[in-house]
Amino acid sequence: MASGLMEVQLVSAKGLKCTDCFGKIDPYVVMQYKAQQHKSSVARGQGKNPTWNEKFVFRAEYPGTGAPYKLIFKIMDRDTFSKDDFLGEATIYVEDLLALGVENGTAELPLLKYSVVLANKTYRGEIKVGVTFTRKAENVTDHLGEEFGGKIDPYVVIQYKTQQHKSSVVRGQGKNPTWNEKFVFRAEYPGNGAPYKLILKIMDRDTFSKDDFLGEATIYVEDLLALGVENGTAELPLLKYSVVLADKTYRGEIQVGVTFTRQVENVTDNHVEEFGGWKQSDF
């Protein structure tokens, strides 16, 4: 049995329709592969022809066990005051892709359009997706910094739009570092400028040369902000995010949680909250 990473490129959809919806639709996609699941951002204001242009990574084994080798794309309409509506789903069978990737090291399903199946089993609309599978080399681990040959002293630069924070340097822990630190960013929703995403850039602190880039991870937070504005607070629980290397391959993971709290009008920006047992950045 061989394992690797299956990268899904979610591009767009066209001709979506929801018979139970009233007015415009704000589509997003829930992607399922066996027990793994990812969710796209919400394409607000784009209606029945949304564009996402996002990438997601699943771990895959071949031959493996469990559910069939298929990717399921469940398209939903985000509603603010009621349950989200089901717009349809598409299925991509990837067994042949995995088998070819295990044999050759990599395999690709180019960008193609797949029909969307409605709840009543009729077809309406299409979704454009590409899939690539890359076999994990035997001498490659799931950890950070293998290519540097010696010990590494990682730290993380965290970017949200024009704001930036930097973690402490974890010395002596090598490829499996632990930080347990909290950082605070100011956020507005709806806002303008760059996309609603957190970028976590992982670096290796070097004493006598330029710090090395170990990889980065991206967390899309638009849905989090929208829910927090509506309810007062919202949370992304601690999850593991894949780390993308400079050559766009994947190696390792970073565990992060995110919470957004709407600012109460009578609370000033000078208020500082203590986080017992954690280190909090200045902002």
Question: If you average the pLDDT, what whole number results?
Answer: 85
Which range best describes the helical content: under 10%, 10-25%, 25-40%, 40-55%, 55-70% or over 70%? under 10%
Distance between the termini: 48 Å
Q: What is the chain-wise order of helices and strands?
A: EEEEEEHEEEEEEEHEEE
Radius of gyration: 21 Å
DSSP helical segment count = 2
Major sheet, described briefly?
Answer: 4 strands, antiparallel
Q: Pairing-aware structural class of the strands and helices?
A: mainly beta
Strand content: over 45%
Could you write a compact summary of the structure shown?
By secondary structure, the chain is mostly beta strands. It has helices at 95-104, 222-231, and strands at residues 2-14, 27-33, 36-39, 51-62, 70-77, 85-93, 106-117, 123-135, 154-160, 163-166, 181-182, 197-204, 212-220, 233-244, 250-261, 279-280. The strands form five sheets. It has a four-stranded antiparallel β-sheet with strand order 4-1-8-7, covered by helices on one side.
Descriptive account of the structure:
- The chain is mainly beta and 283 residues long.
- It has 2 helices and 16 strands.
- It has helices spanning 95-104, 222-231, and strands at residues 2-14, 27-33, 36-39, 51-62, 70-77, 85-93, 106-117, 123-135, 154-160, 163-166, 181-182, 197-204, 212-220, 233-244, 250-261, 279-280.
- The strands form 5 sheets. The protein has a 4-stranded antiparallel beta sheet with strand order 4-1-8-7, covered by helices on one side. Strands 3-2-5-6 form a 4-stranded antiparallel beta sheet. It has a 4-stranded antiparallel beta sheet with strand order 10-9-12-13.
- Strand 9 (154-160) and strand 10 (163-166) form a beta hairpin.
- It starts with a strand and ends with a strand.
- Mean pLDDT is 85; it is low at 138-143 and 267-283.
